[in-house]
Amino acid sequence: MDRFERIYKQGVVTTMEIWVDRETGVQYLFHRDGYSGGLTPLLDQDGKPLIETEV
Fold first, then answer.
1. 23, 47, 48, 52: which has the fewest C-beta neighbours closer than 10 Å?
2. Are the CB atoms for 38 and 14 separated by under 8 Å?
């Protein structure tokens, strides 16, 4: 079983994806535009990581 699971994808060349770490439940946003991209955890209004409850 893979540790990370993509739960959302938007776009083709420029994409935004949401990934979940199956061990911790933390959600991450991945943004790609051409040959560049970045990954960051999604945070709630208090600055704490969003946790997927159904991992």
1. 47
2. no
